[in-house]
Design a protein that fits this description.
about 850 residues; alpha/beta; Rossmann fold; six-stranded mixed β-sheet; five-stranded mixed β-sheet; Tetratricopeptide repeat-containing protein; TPR-like_helical_dom_sf; CHAT_dom
Length: about 850
């Protein structure tokens, strides 16, 4: 009996490790239990019972750490052991346990139909015969729901999850309640409701952190998949890179390989096709070793998708015939395994390759084999189908049909975007419509160069760029957990700054800050729906709002830049310079401006850098200006750039020096900003560490006698944020930092730490006009679809009418002088664009400020 008790103790420890998703530890403890049991004790019921339980649990653990075949072998031995037990309640219950464990293992190797059939055969008897606390029933309702999600059976999965959650909460099985929330997240993701998926994942995570932290890596894997569906490749990749070492340490072979497939998908979205092929190939080998044909073929599709997109990206060469052939051969294998959407994707990729090769008949035949999308078909697959139909229409001389497909696809994508929560998610979805948008613009650009073409091109531009700015932000649902993370981030960032000044290490603090930022970002994805969609502005609305202004919208067609001009109701299109040359010159000019910024630059160095900047500005003027001078005349300009031109301070171009101009993400965004009401209160806030900052803010009291002044020790993030609410003009003098990796955490440094862009997005009544005297806070991180996000961009998306900020580094003295000139103009009632033009014309190279939004 001592052996049985020892084995039972080890078995109990193994069950706890298994519940916490530590299969390697579980297997080790169970092997120790088997050794403790020793040879069979003749007809000893207790020995037979614990041996059977140990073998059942070992089957599950080794199915994960070794192979499903090893696990199934242990299950067979467990069943033989169970049959040696005399008839009793425990013998009957173990029959169900063996069978249900076999069902979940069949699912893990891709035999989904066999798995669900076995669940269906056993669970009614479990419900009727096994009373106690319903733990077995609760667990296996959860397991069956997992299989239903994999089989795209949402209603069946929902029914199982709801009953599982009800039983878990009724009987106090808190860990299983967390897993049920996890499953509801998977279900929401299957149905395309990404905010709901992330909400459920976060609720599950809160439970896991306190009970079963070992499940957090798997939860993060599913969160990463949701982010990929929302187009957030960078965020998903970072999350996967973080969890994969933990999965490897746990020896969770299936989860490791699934994470590698997801990482391949992230690499594809980022355009790193070589990395995608590497991850997909490694995952496929893992799946084959496990005997999981279903997932092995999914990995094959990921590898071929990377190859296909790489071939399609190479405009100079026709794709090799091998690729479409392999995809066409893979499609029926995927279909036989129940992977309907994946089979369709394989055929659609082959269609695109055939069209690129000029094999139109083969493409048309293959496209006819693709079924209509289902409710659960992922958005990227839907957009791929639209793209194939559009490209086939182009190949067969039907441009109108191609444009109709593009319009329908972008409308469908817009409906998905409207359901998103959080600014990041709204922005991210644009990636799925990129190629449709490019195709539409290319078709329109290829038409006759007349006013009709220009009008049509402008309308398409508004459908395809900067869609996040056409949303009216909804009231915020405050989340205390998110607020707690933001507060701690502020404290950590403040300590980092203090440590740096004192020459102390910051590595541990930076690691903590990064972890907090990641957590806060996850919470921000779903805490509130972002906004209510407004319609895209029509050409007529833009013409009426422009009045005497001229709108210049930059368009890129591969290697060439064009400029679409709207002036006095007339639309025209002008060819500009070579795209690559323009972008490279802009980068060089931006570097010159950064180098020129310091207040006390040696005169000879300053002269050399200024000369370089001047020459590059003149070169850009020639490249971009073309025949536009007469069009612009002396009118105020509204400029809508492409992504790489967001870092250009346009006033440095000789032809635009002193010219009132406003930069906007889209004409729709500009029109929305123009319609926002005017407010009057003035806020002057000065942060720490900026030479002359306090004095500068105080001096502005002479310009705005009734302004609210926040400076010195009172300039905390909370005080400034409260003061921003409902202000008319907010002048903020503080050091700042643009955060390219996560633009919503670009920040303004205040007394108690940073004020984040993410926080300004929570304002109910954002300030009408914001002047950012800090360096680089007008910079943006450009996402696909020309979605520009940063500190200034977040303010504009949140409802501010105008943001004035620096697009490059700026010296403290130059900033103070520019701001003084600017505010004297603004206080006199001069519009922002005109006031800034006057203030920067004195020295545009050292005053690289832009007027963003509406001037």
């Amino acid at each position: 009996m001592r052996a049985v008790e020892a084995a039972r103790g080890l078995y109990d420890r193994a069950k706890k490790a298994s519940a916490d998703s530590r299969p390697a530890v579980t297997a080790k403890l169970l092997h120790q239990a088997l050794r403790a049991l020793g040879p069979r004790i003749q007809d000893d019921v207790n020995w037979l019972e614990i041996s059977t339980k140990v073998l059942i649990s070992l089957a599950s653990a080794e199915a994960e750490t070794k192979s499903p075949a090893s696990g199934l072998k242990h299950l067979d031995t467990a069943e033989a052991m169970r049959l040696r037990m005399p008839d009793c309640k425990e013998r009957s219950t173990l029959r169900f346990t063996v069978g249900l464990q076999r069902a979940i293992m069949l699912a893990r190797i891709g035999r989904l139909a066999d798995s669900v059939a076995l669940f269906d055969a056993l669970l009614p008897s479990v419900d009727a015969e096994v009373e106690d606390d319903k733990l077995l029933l609760t667990t296996d309702l959860l397991n069956r729901s997992y299989v239903h999600v994999l089989m795209s059976n949402p209603e069946a999965a929902r029914a199982d999850l709801r009953r599982c959650l009800e039983l878990a909460e009724e009987h106090g099985h808190h860990g299983l309640a967390g897993k049920a929330r996890h499953g509801l997240g998977d279900l929401a993701q299957l149905e395309g409701d990404i905010p709901e998926a992330l909400r459920n994942y976060e609720q599950a995570g809160q439970i896991y952190r306190s009970i079963w932290p070992g499940w957090l890596p798997l939860l993060r894997l599913n969160q990463a998949r949701a982010l990929l569906a929302a187009g957030l490749a960078e965020e998903a990749a970072a999350q996967l890179d973080e969890i994969m070492p933990e999965l490897i340490r746990k020896k969770a072979a299936q989860d490791i390989a699934e994470a590698e497939v997801a990482r391949a998908a992230a690499a594809i979205l980022e355009g790193d096709f070589a990395l995608a092929r590497k991850y997909a190939a490694t995952a496929r080998r893992r799946f084959l070793r496990r005997g999981n044909a279903r997932w092995a073929e999914i990995a094959s599709l990921a590898r071929l998708r990377a190859g296909a997109l790489n071939a399609l990206a190479n405009k100079a060469r026709k794709p090799a015939p091998r690729l479409p052939r392999e995809l066409s051969e893979l499609a029926p294998r995927l279909a036989e395994l129940g992977l309907r959407d994946e089979a369709a994707a394989a055929r659609l990729l082959a269609v695109r390759l055939h069209l690129r090769r000029g094999a139109v008949d083969e493409a048309e035949t293959l496209l006819s084999q693709v079924p209509k999308p289902r409710q659960t078909t992922p958005i990227d697959h839907r957009m791929l189908l639209r793209l194939c139909r559009a490209e086939l229409a182009v190949a067969t001389g039907r441009p109108r049909a191609a444009l109709a497909q593009a319009r329908a696809g972008l409308t469908e994508l817009g409906a998905i975007r409207d359901r998103m929560g959080g600014l990041d998610l709204v922005c991210g979805t644009a990636v799925h419509g990129q190629e449709l948008g490019r195709l539409a613009l290319k078709l329109v650009l290829g038409g006759r160069r007349d006013q009709s073409q220009a009008r049509q091109l402008f309308a398409w531009q508004e459908l395809t760029r900067a869609q996040v700015y056409r949303y009216e932000p909804l009231p915020v649902i405050e989340d205390p957990v998110l607020a707690k993370h933001i507060t701690e981030m502020r404290q950590v960032q403040g300590q980092i700054q203090r440590n740096r000044l004192q020459g102390e290490s910051v590595s541990a603090l930076e690691k903590r800050y990064s972890a907090l930022q990641s957590e806060a970002g996850r919470l921000g994805w779903y805490t509130s729906p972002w906004g209510k969609p407004r319609p895209v502005a029509t050409n007529e609305e833009i013409v009426e709002a422009l009045g005497d202004r001229v709108l210049a919208s930059v368009v890129s067609d591969g290697e060439t830049l064009f400029c679409l001009i709207i002036r006095d109701g007339e639309f025209s299109l002008t060819k500009l310079g070579d795209r690559a040359e323009v972008i490279e010159t802009v980068k060089q000019l931006h570097a010159d401006l950064d180098a020129l910024a310091p207040d006390h630059l040696p005169p000879m160095l300053a002269e050399a850098v200024a000369g370089s900047a001047s020459r590059r500005a003149e070169k850009l003027d020639k490249l971009l200006r073309a025949s536009l001078t007469e069009q612009f005349a002396d009118r105020e300009l509204v400029i809508i750039p492409i992504g790489p031109l967001y870092v250009l301070p346009w006033a440095v171009l000789p032809s635009l020096r002193g010219r009132p101009l406003t930069v906007a993400p889209s004409a729709t965004a500009w029109l929305s900003a123009m319609k926002r009401p005017h407010a009057s209160p003035v806020l002057l806030a000065g942060g720490p560490g900026v030479p002359g900052a306090i004095g500068e803010v105080s001096q502005l009291r002479a310009v705005y006698p009734g302004a609210q002044l926040i400076d010195g020790a009172s300039a905390t993030s909370d005080a400034v944020l409260r003061a921003l609410e409902g202000s008319g003009t907010a002048h903020l003098v503080a050091h700042g930092a643009h955060e390219p990796a996560n633009a919503l955490f670009s920040r303004l440094e205040l007394v108690d730490g940073p004020l984040f862009a993410h926080e300004t997005a929570r304002l109910t009544r954002p300030p009408e006009r914001v002047v950012l005297a800090a360096c680089e806070l007008a910079m943006s991180h450009i996402r696909p679809g020309e979605e520009a996000l940063g500190f200034a961009g977040t303010l504009l998306a949140s409802g501010s009418r105008t943001v004035i900020g620096a697009i490059a580094r700026v010296g403290d003295r130059a900033a103070a002088e520019a701001m003084s000139d600017l505010h004297h103009q603004l206080a006199a009632g001069i519009p922002p664009a005109t006031a800034l033009a006057e203030a920067t014309a004195v020295d545009p190279f050292r005053r690289p400020f832009l007027c963003l939004g509406a001037g």
